[in-house]
Amino acid sequence: MTTFLRMSQLYAPTLKETPSDAELVSHQLLLRAGFMRKSATGMYSYLPLGYRVIKKVENIVREEMDAIGSQEILMPILQPAELWHESGRWDDYGPELMRMVDRHERSMCLGPTHEEIITALVRNELRSYKQLPCSLYQIQDKFRDEIRPRFGLMRSREFVMKDAYSFHDSQESLEQTYADMSHAYERICERLCLDYRPVQADSGQIGGSVTCEYHALAPAGEAELVSCSCGYAANTEVAESSPQPTEFPETELRKVETPNVHTIAELAEFLECPESSTVKAMLGKDEDGKPVVLFVPGDYELNELKAQRSVPGYTLMDDEEIEAAGLPKGSIGSVGLPEGVRIGADRSLQNIEHWVVGANEDGYHYVGAKQGRDFTVDFWADLSTAQEGNACPECGKPMTLTRGIEVAQVFQLGTKYSETMGAVYSDEDGVDKPFIMGCYGVGISRSMQAVAEQHNDEYGLIWPASIAPAHVCVLPLTVGDDEVQPAAEKLAADLAEIGLEVVLDDRDERPGVKFAEADLIGWPLQIIVGKRGLANGEYEMKNRRTGEKFAMSFADFDEALELARQDRTPADEWLRNTAGVGGIDEIESI
Q1: Which three-class secondary structure string do you get for 566-582?
Q2: What is the predicted pLDDT for the residue at 319?
Q3: Rounded CA separation 421/82 (Å)
Q4: If 498 and its partner were Cys, which of 115, 347, 456, 564 is the partner (CB 3.0–4.6 Å)?
Q5: Tell me, what's the pLDDT at 212?
Q6: Are residues 45 and 181 in the same domain?
Q7: Pair 304, 357 in one domain
Q8: Whole-prediction pTM
Q9: Is 50 exceeded by the pLDDT of residue 584?
Q10: Which of 134-143, 384-393, 511-520, 554-563 is least confident?
Q11: What letters, b where the CB count within 10 A reaches 16 and e where it falls short, cover 449-481?
């Protein structure tokens, strides 16, 4: 028996007004179209339409994981603290780790990721090199205590994720699985019809030395990305920057009174020089709490991740700490710093002899501050964040800046977890060696919103057929009669019979309401059934993506249905051939 959805029975409450706390258009539309509801800050309930999309994203991911031989498992969300102590991440992970204590006073956490659990799982089971490589994955809720949850599913406290882990006896084996996973992730992005870009990235709290992020390109994305026509692409967190600082004309050290000057822009205007002739200072502390001042060209920003790689444990000081260090927040400079304060500077400043810097006194700056004469730099490093137009590190051409929504990431972990947690296998000679590991994640719920962010217009969502909550919406203009509704019911059943997912809007609503909500929800194909069309022997069809409306005769439609029955045509192909509604190929029209 073939079935289809009925709007009269579907729990899909729509909203006419945009929720005030929804900033991104995708967040607004997912709420307005009845796909999800906010339960608490950073937490959402998925309503039937949203959960159908989530399950379709999951199935695409599952198919691609299975295709490369990864095996699905399910691990506990609740994790014992002792495993995190073994790996050393209980303290290192930071406040985002949701911690708790059970009734027996045992410390636990809600899993933000599962490296510890999976390593503990296999260390007693995978004992021989003959069992390697092995790749395991799960699809599960994750939890992170975000300090500022925002943008709906983009940065939430609870989210659905696919995480996979691989175990190897050689670096070559890891690299092969890493490549297989990378190709699978590309196919996932393509099947989700995302306009995406793989970029070099930082491994963050997961660890490892090699990693790549997959970003859905969107102006609303949190991440800044730089890329070049030669193929180089990187998150600005790790991208090499190439500032072009300029010399200030004065060569003698001179203290200048700069009243009411608090920013680099104000300083440049006051001195009538470009911002590139000034030097910006950021006061922080290292892992031992000792002060470190880092300097970058005035027209650039300090990159905190690069700073942490140069100064282990580096964090910026807050206002109270700056005051306690005896330095003025707005006028920190390289000349006359208190004893014990280390100086680090962006390497682009190495050939700039004379700096314009704060005088370590409120309302004053120095011009003509010379390296070696007036101050000494303790170390040089790439400390600034890459910008539009910076030279590509691979070919030297100017790079372009875009924004992206991270939807996936792959890591080569090496032996970070296996060594600390004693996870070993026996090699051919019977010698125990730590597993070489890989880790691979896809944000399932985030991917749904990323698709929504890329696929919408002024009327609502425009779902690709591959993950739409249903492929076709049949819209009878009248219900309860003995002509239009029976024809619409038969049409819905016929479409469901050939494998399409169909929703029938059998509500007793005005046609305008039905049309507006069909566009808001984003059904890929709408088929309108009315008395005039029935009298003319045709259906009116609408391609949601293009907005194109066209008529199809009953004869042509029946022929298309019959061909689908005979050939068992996949839903995507039938939609594309019959109504121009595609799947993977839709990315070309983004």
Answers
A1: HHCCCHHHHHHHHHCCC
A2: 87
A3: 11
A4: 564
A5: 95
A6: yes
A7: yes
A8: 0.91
A9: no
A10: 554-563
A11: bbbbbbbbeeebbbbbbbbbbbbbbbbbbebee
pLDDT at position 426 over 80: yes
In a domain, 200, yes or no: no
Q: Is residue 205 part of a domain?
A: no
Task: Provide the domain count of the chain.
Answer: 3
Q: Specify the residue for token string 């282990």.
A: 312
Task: Report the pLDDT value the prediction gives residue 324, as an integer from 0 to 100.
Answer: 84
Strand order across the 342-346 sheet: 315-316, 279-285, 291-297, 342-346, 379-381
Let me know if residue 361 belongs to a domain.
yes
Residue 589 has pLDDT above 90, yes or no: no
Q: Each residue of 60-73: pLDDT tens digit?
A: 999 999 999 999 99
Residue 585 has pLDDT above 90, yes or no: no
One-letter amino acid of 127: R
pLDDT on residue 563: 83
Residues 6+ apart with CB under 8 A from 435: 119, 122, 126, 132, 167, 168, 169, 415, 418, 423, 424, 425
Token output for 328? 């003025």
Sheet of 472-476, strands arranged across:
5-6, 502-504, 472-476, 525-529, 538-543, 549-553
Examine the domain organization and report whether 103 and 189 are in the same domain. Answer: yes
Distance CA(268)–CA(275), nearest Å, equals: 5
Q: What is the pLDDT of residue 540?
A: 94
Residues 341 and 443 in one domain: no
**Looking at residue 586, what is its pLDDT?**
47
Looking at the structure, do residues 292 and 362 belong to the same domain, yes or no? yes
Domain hosting residue 353, numbered range:
254-381
Q: How confident is the model at residue 303 (pLDDT cuts 50, 70, 90)?
A: very high
Interacting residues of 226 by C-beta distance below 8 A, sequence separation 6+: 233, 234, 236, 239, 386, 387, 388, 390, 399, 400, 401, 402
The Cα 433–Cα 415 span in angstroms is: 10
- Give dist(CA 355, CA 246) in Å, integer: 9
Question: Which residue in the block uniquely carries the two structure tokens 């299975």?
Answer: 66
Residue 204 has pLDDT above 80, yes or no: no
366, β-bridge pairs: 255, 357
Residues 49 and 187 in one domain: yes
CB-CB contact of 40 with 160 (8 Å): no
Among 504, 526, 516, CA closest to 460: 516
Q: How far apart are CA 241 and CA 392, in angstroms?
A: 9
- First vs last Cα of the chain: how many Å apart? 37
Is residue 344 a contact partner of residue 376, using CB atoms and an 8 Å limit? no
- Using an 8 Å Cβ cutoff, are 396 and 378 in contact? no
**Is the confidence at residue 23, as pLDDT, over 60?**
yes
Is 50 exceeded by the pLDDT of residue 436?
A: yes
